[in-house]
């Protein structure tokens, strides 16, 4: 069966409503289960009975009239009796029910009352949407002209209806209804597909000076025939929501970007990079000059005359604001200005509107000229203070952005400034420690290379950039050894700070002591390895009490000894890069000494590598940072080889050429390069004799030594040299078997060496007056500047050095022509 027409309010009817069919006389012919649930009367009791007995007759009104019976069509409220006889308020709809076979009947729809007339609900909803809702409701016709709008929405508040009704929406809000929005509305009108949550910025009619963000949704309106009538658009102002989200994103971004390095300038730049384009059009950051040097200012306000250094400046391209001071330039602020007032009470300053006639601009004319030229209309000044100490000040400007700064902006930059200040203070503390460590390190490194004739040497020491990712403390040395030999040393301590510098100093001092004992390179590294192990153990004990105070545990070192007489080079390595050898013919080879473990490593023995070099060979020792700057270390070594193969007038020129080719910018780590070009002592500078172990040869040795000194023009040293030769040869004959070798070397000093087959080293004694012997070495020590013993493969060598005589003009005698 079907009903004709549409039940009024039918859109609100649901399956919970009851249906009752009546014949033409009002007798019930159908009683639904919903009717039974609503009133309690059973189907078998009600079918065949009239419905009218269930109606509760209303009381007469004040004028004595009686309300009419329920209408034949339409809706109303009525009161019916339930099965227990109690009245029940229901909503009543009645309409004809036509069937092709049955006579005309009536359909009655009953529903529990909802406390209001459905028409009242519809009117209330429409009135609320058009007059009270905080959402913007705009009803547009098919030509997108405004038909209705919500007068209470923030974007249309105080806009008179007669001024905008009938006008195209594009004219009413041109910055909101853009080409894109208009295209979307026409698409909704033509297809019926709704648009949900399209975010559009613009300036609404109620606030033409302030930019807002709107979430737009639109759907098509149709009549009962399904024809389009227009478009309804809902606009929700989400400006604050997006601003809050943007603030959270900005703070999160700042926490990730600001303070990533222990570098003052970089920390200031990170603040500027984070803020410009998101909060301000331009930012300048000035840091106290004393802070820049790592010093800690006094707590509290800063005097107006204090010196600042411009540390960062950043501006969007459209602003055109030029900095008043260049990066790194020192300056003081004019007084009184917002900057000096900000530092006087440590309170930020918000200047929503900068006027050209503001009196404080006259006290800072340079800054004022730049601000006027860029049309800066709003600014903020925020102190950078951490742990009660003022470190600097940050200034924020707006010239392109129309909105002035407000309190929310000041709160945001205040939090950013506090975070930046902590980063600056950490960088300042690191700078102070780094500077102190650098001063100590420089004091522990050789200021100049010693005078010697074995090699022509030069070095380059480049301190790394503070706060870089690599932390190594290198050292280098050129140590004169006995027999005119020279030791070349380059090492690297893995670590940073005072502890690493102190470790470097201890290793360098130990290297000098071990070199003075004339130990072989592998023996020197073995002793340094033992020292590093002991230092690491001390560091572990210290770390148990202070985890932040840890001793470096490893180091690398390359130790090479060159003999200008034999032209031999002996090299040993402890985890250090391989030295390179550039021969005079341009061929560059590696000193292929086994790498060995780093000092303080696994304790494996070190090995030496020995080769004979032609005169003029260039020896290059360096730290790993010199070649680490390349994309791959092999490429850095290859480029280094190419530079070393070239001819250079001097070692200083060669050092510069290597640095220029290897580095394109300041390195993050300390770099050391040590270059040495080998020299040779000619045969006429060395005299050597071999004698049998016979007391008779003592006189012969003295005679030969005297003749050699005469040929060198050193007759002034003949007497002392004869005494030295006599004493050393006599001791060798007395205590050592086999042959005895005597060698004189004319270098920067006169070197006398006596080599025998005994490994027992003599020692200096202080004999009593009654002792018959023991005065030989004491006499030798008094007649020479230096003396010592070094062990050889066949025994030992006792050596002495005497200063060469000088003429009154300071020159050294030369050998006469023969």
TrEMBL record:
<dbReference type="Pfam" id="PF07228">
    <property type="entry name" value="SpoIIE"/>
</dbReference>
<dbReference type="InterPro" id="IPR003018">
    <property type="entry name" value="GAF"/>
</dbReference>
<dbReference type="InterPro" id="IPR029016">
    <property type="entry name" value="GAF-like_dom_sf"/>
</dbReference>
<dbReference type="InterPro" id="IPR052016">
    <property type="entry name" value="Bact_Sigma-Reg"/>
</dbReference>
<keyword id="KW-0378">Hydrolase</keyword>
<protein>
    <submittedName>
        <fullName>PAS domain S-box-containing protein</fullName>
    </submittedName>
</protein>
<dbReference type="Pfam" id="PF00989">
    <property type="entry name" value="PAS"/>
</dbReference>
<dbReference type="InterPro" id="IPR035965">
    <property type="entry name" value="PAS-like_dom_sf"/>
</dbReference>
<dbReference type="InterPro" id="IPR003594">
    <property type="entry name" value="HATPase_dom"/>
</dbReference>
<dbReference type="GO" id="GO:0006355">
    <property type="term" value="P:regulation of DNA-templated transcription"/>
</dbReference>
<dbReference type="InterPro" id="IPR001932">
    <property type="entry name" value="PPM-type_phosphatase-like_dom"/>
</dbReference>
<dbReference type="InterPro" id="IPR036457">
    <property type="entry name" value="PPM-type-like_dom_sf"/>
</dbReference>
<dbReference type="InterPro" id="IPR036890">
    <property type="entry name" value="HATPase_C_sf"/>
</dbReference>
<dbReference type="GO" id="GO:0016791">
    <property type="term" value="F:phosphatase activity"/>
</dbReference>
<dbReference type="InterPro" id="IPR013656">
    <property type="entry name" value="PAS_4"/>
</dbReference>
<dbReference type="Pfam" id="PF13581">
    <property type="entry name" value="HATPase_c_2"/>
</dbReference>
<dbReference type="InterPro" id="IPR013767">
    <property type="entry name" value="PAS_fold"/>
</dbReference>
<feature type="domain" description="PAS">
    <location>
        <begin position="20"/>
        <end position="59"/>
    </location>
</feature>
<dbReference type="InterPro" id="IPR000014">
    <property type="entry name" value="PAS"/>
</dbReference>
<dbReference type="Pfam" id="PF01590">
    <property type="entry name" value="GAF"/>
</dbReference>
<dbReference type="Pfam" id="PF08448">
    <property type="entry name" value="PAS_4"/>
</dbReference>
<feature type="region of interest" description="Disordered">
    <location>
        <begin position="56"/>
        <end position="75"/>
    </location>
</feature>
């Amino acid at each position: 069966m079907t009903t004709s027409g549409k039940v009024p309010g039918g859109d609100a009817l649901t399956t919970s409503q009851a249906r009752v069919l009546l014949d033409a006389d009002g007798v019930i012919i159908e009683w639904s289960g919903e009717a039974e649930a609503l009133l309690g009367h059973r189907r078998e009791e009600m079918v065949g009975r009239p419905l009218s007995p269930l109606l509760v007759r209303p009381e007469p009104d004040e004028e004595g009239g009686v309300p009419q019976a329920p209408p034949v069509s339409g809706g109303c409220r009525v009161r019916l009796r339930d099965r227990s006889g109690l009245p029940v308020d229901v909503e009543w709809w009645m309409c004809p029910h036509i069937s092709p076979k049955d006579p005309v009947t009536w359909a009655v729809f009953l529903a529990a009352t909802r406390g209001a007339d459905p028409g009242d609900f519809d009117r209330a909803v429409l009135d609320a949407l058009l007059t009270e809702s905080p959402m913007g409701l705009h009803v547009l016709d098919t030509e997108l002209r405004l038909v209705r709008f919500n007068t209470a929405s923030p974007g249309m508040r105080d806009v008179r209806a007669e001024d905008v009704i009938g006008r195209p929406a594009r004219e009413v809000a041109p910055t909101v209804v853009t080409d894109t929005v208009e295209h979307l509305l026409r698409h909704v009108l033509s297809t019926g597909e709704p648009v949900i949550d399209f975010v559009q910025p613009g300036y609404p009619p109620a606030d033409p000076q302030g930019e807002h963000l709107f979430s737009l949704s639109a759907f098509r309106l149709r009549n009962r025939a399904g024809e389009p009538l227009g478009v309804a658009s809902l606009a929700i102002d989400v400006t604050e929501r997006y601003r809050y989200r943007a603030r959270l994103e900005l703070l999160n971004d700042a926490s990730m970007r600001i303070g990533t390095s222990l570098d003052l300038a970089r920390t200031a730049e990170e603040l500027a990079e984070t803020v410009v384009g998101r909060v301000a059009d331009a930012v300048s950051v000035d840091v106290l000059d004393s802070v820049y040097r790592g010093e800690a200012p006094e707590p509290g306000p800063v005097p107006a005359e204090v010196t600042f250094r411009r540390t960062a400046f950043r501006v969007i391209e459209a602003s055109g604001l030029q900095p008043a001071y260049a990066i790194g330039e020192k300056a003081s602020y004019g007084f009184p200005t917002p900057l000096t007032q900000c530092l006087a009470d440590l309170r930020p300053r918000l200047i929503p509107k900068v006027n050209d006639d503001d009196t404080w601009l006259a006290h800072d004319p340079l800054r004022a000229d730049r601000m006027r030229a860029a049309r800066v209309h709003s600014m903020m000044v925020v102190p950078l203070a951490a742990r009660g100490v003022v470190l600097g000040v940050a200034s924020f400007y707006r010239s392109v952005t129309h909105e002035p700064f407000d309190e929310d902006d000041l709160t945001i930059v205040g939090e950013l400034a506090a975070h930046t200040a902590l980063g600056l203070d950490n960088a300042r503390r690191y700078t102070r420690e780094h500077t102190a460590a650098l001063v100590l390190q420089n004091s522990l490194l050789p200021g100049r290379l010693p005078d010697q004739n074995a090699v022509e040497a030069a070095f380059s020491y480049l301190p790394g950039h503070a706060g870089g990712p690599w932390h190594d403390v290198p050292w280098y040395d050129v140590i004169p050894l006995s027999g005119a030999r020279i030791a070349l040393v380059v090492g690297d301590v893995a670590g940073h700070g005072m502890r690493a510098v102190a470790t470097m100093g201890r290793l360098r001092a130990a290297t000098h002591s071990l070199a003075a004992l004339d130990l072989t390179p592998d023996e020197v590294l073995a002793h340094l390895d033992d020292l590093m192990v002991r230092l690491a153990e001390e560091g572990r004990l210290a770390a148990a009490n202070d985890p932040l105070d840890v001793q470096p545990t490893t180091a690398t070192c390359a130790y090479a000894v060159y003999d200008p007489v034999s032209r031999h080079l002996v090299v040993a390595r402890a985890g250090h890069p391989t030295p390179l050898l550039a021969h005079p013919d341009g061929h560059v080879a590696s000193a292929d000494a086994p790498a060995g473990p780093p000092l303080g490593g696994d304790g494996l023995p070190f090995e030496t590598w020995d080769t004979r070099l032609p005169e003029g060979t260039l020896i290059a020792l360096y730290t790993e940072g010199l070649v680490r700057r390349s994309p791959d270390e092999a490429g850095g070594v290859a480029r280094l080889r190419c530079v070393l193969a070239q001819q250079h007038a001097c070692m200083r020129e060669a050092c510069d050429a290597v640095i220029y080719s290897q580095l394109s910018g300041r390195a993050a780590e300390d770099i050391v390069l040590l270059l040495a070009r080998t020299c040779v002592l000619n045969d006429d500078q060395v005299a050597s004799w071999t004698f049998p172990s016979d007391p008779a040869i003592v006189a012969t040795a003295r005679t030969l030594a005297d003749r050699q000194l005469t040929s060198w023009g050193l007759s002034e040293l003949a007497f002392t040299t004869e005494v030295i030769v006599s004493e050393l040869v006599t001791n060798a004959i007395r205590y050592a078997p086999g042959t005895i070798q005597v060698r004189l070397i004319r270098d920067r000093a006169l070197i006398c060496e006596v080599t025998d087959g005994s490994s027992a080293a003599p020692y200096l004694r202080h004999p009593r007056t009654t002792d018959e012997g023991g005065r030989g070495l004491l006499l030798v020590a008094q007649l020479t500047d230096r003396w010592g013993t070094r062990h050889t493969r066949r025994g030992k060598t006792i050596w002495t050095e005497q200063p060469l005589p000088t003429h009154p003009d300071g020159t050294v005698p030369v050998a006469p022509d023969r």
